[in-house]
Amino acid sequence: MITISRQLELDTKNSPWNATEEPDLCRWEGVTCSPSNDSILSLSMSGFSLSNSSFLPMLCRINSLHSLDFSNNSLELIPEFLSSPSLQDVDLSYNMLDGPVPENMSSSLVRLRLGSNSLGGPIPSASFEPLQNLMYLELENIGFTGKIPPQIGHCRKLALLNLAKNKLSGILPEELLDLTQLQVLKLQLNKLDGGIPDQIGQLIMLSVLNISWNSLNGTIPSSISNCANLFSLSLQNNDLTGSIPDGISNMSSLIELQLGANKLYGRIPDMPPKLQISLNLSSNLFEGDIPKTLSGLYDLEVLDLSNNKFSGTVPDFLAGLPTLSRLVLSNNQLSGVVPNFSRLVTVDLSGNPELGTRNEDENGGEDIDDKFWFYISMGLGYPIGFCGLFVGAW
Question: Would you say residue 93 has pLDDT above 70?
C-alpha cells in the first residue's frame, strides 16, 4: 500500500494516503480493514483523479481485498486482478476504460459496475456464465454492440441488470426472463427489436422495467400485469401496437407509466390507482372522448395525452384532480369550453383550434373579469360622486 501511494504520488503532505503523517494504513481515507486490523478488506479511491494504471497489478498481492471502488477517475486499462477469488464488489464506472471485458472474472463477484466507459464490442458471453453469485450488473453507456448474450440468464441471483445506452440489437433472449430474482431491468436506448415475450410476467419481483427508446413491436402482453411489484414501467418510443391490457389496473404499486410514442389505440382501461409521477400516453393513435377511466387518478402529478386524436370537450374531472401539476393536451381535435384549472396547474392546449375558454364562451368573447371590475368601479363611482357634490354644496 505504501508503494502504491508513492507510485500514485499520494504520499505527499496533506494527502489522504501519507505513511509519514499516518503510519496506520487502516486510518487512510477509503481504506477499510478487518476488525483485527491485520488485513485490508476494501479500497475506495473514487474521485481521486487517478489516470495512471500501472499500480493495478500490485493490488493482486492484497489477497484479502473484497471490495474495490475506483469510479470517477481517468483510468484507461481494465485491471487483470478482477479474477482475484476474494473480490466480491468492483466499481470501475465513470473512467476511460478501453478494450474488452475480461473473460476471466472472480466467481465470487456479487456486484460489478463498469458503466460509462469506452469498452465497446460485443458483450463476451463467456465472462458471465461462471458468475453464479452476481446480484448487481451495471454495464450501461459503454458502447456495446451485438446481441444480449443468453448466458447472462445463468446469473440466477441477479437483482439488478442495467444494459442501457448501448448499441445492442436483436430480440430479448428468453433466458433473460428466467432471472426471477430481478428487481430492476434497464435496457433503454438500444436497438432491440422483436416483441415483448409473454414470459415477462415471470419476473414478479420487478420494481423497475425500462425498455424505452428501442424498436420493439407487437402488443403489450397481458402477462405484464403479473408484475405486481412494479412501480415504474417505461415502454415509450417503440413500435408497440394494439391496446393497453385491461389487467394494468391491477398493478397497485405502479406510480409511473410511460407508454408515449408508440402506435397504441383502442379503449383506455382503468389505470392503476396509485399513479403519481406521470401517465404518458402521448403520440399514439387514441381517439374519441378523453375517457372517464382517468377520473380516479387522485395522486397523479403529470398527465400527457398530446399528439393523439382525442375529440370532444375537455372533461371537468381533469380540473378536479387534486395533485395534478401539468396537463398536456396539445395537438388533438378537442373543442368546446375549457374547465377552470387551478393556477398551480400548467395546461398545454396548443394545436386544438376549436377550443375556447369558459369566459369567452359565456360572454361573447369579453372576459368576465373585465366586466366585473367595470361594474364595481361604476358602483363605487356613484356614492363617491354624490358625496363630492354634497361636500361642495356644504
Answer: yes
| SS3 per-residue string spanning the chain | CHHHHHHCCCCCCCCCCCCCCCCCHHHCCCEEECCCCCCEEEEECCCCCCCCCCCHHHHHHCCCCCEEECCCCCCCECCHHHHCCCCCEEECCCCCCECCCCCCCCCCCCEEECCCCECCEECCHHHCCCCCCCCEEECCCCCEEEECCHHHHHCCCCCEEECCCCEEEECCCHHHHHCCCCCEEECCCCEEEECCCHHHHHCCCCCEEECCCCEEEEECCHHHHHCCCCCEEECCCCEEEECCCHHHHHCCCCCEEECCCCEECCCCCCCCCCCCCEEECCCCCCEECCCHHHCCCCCCCEEECCCCEEEECCCHHHHCCCCCCEEECCCCEEEEEECCCCCCCEEECCCCCEEEEHHHHHCCCCCHHHHHHHHHHHHHHHHHHHHHHHHHHC
Q: Are 326 and 345 in contact (CB under 8 A)?
A: yes
pTM over 0.70? The answer is yes
CB atoms within 10 A of CB 386: 10
Backbone CA torsion sign across 150, 151, 155, 159: negative
Contact 11, 17 (CB under 8 A): yes
Q: Answer whether 101's CB lies under 8 Å from 80's CB.
A: no
- Residues 171-205: tens digit of each pLDDT: 999 999 999 999 999 999 999 999 999 999 999 99
* Residue indicated by cell numbers 448487481: 136
The pLDDT of residue 381 is 45
pLDDT above 80 (res 285)? yes
Distance between CA atoms of residues 105 and 85, nearest Å: 8
Distance CA 72, CA 48 (A): 8
Could you report the per-residue pLDDT of 296-349, keeping only the tens digit for each? 999 999 999 999 999 999 999 999 999 999 999 999 999 999 999 999 999 999
Asked whether 100 and 125 are in contact (CB, 8 A), the reply is no
8 Å CB contact between 314 and 291? no
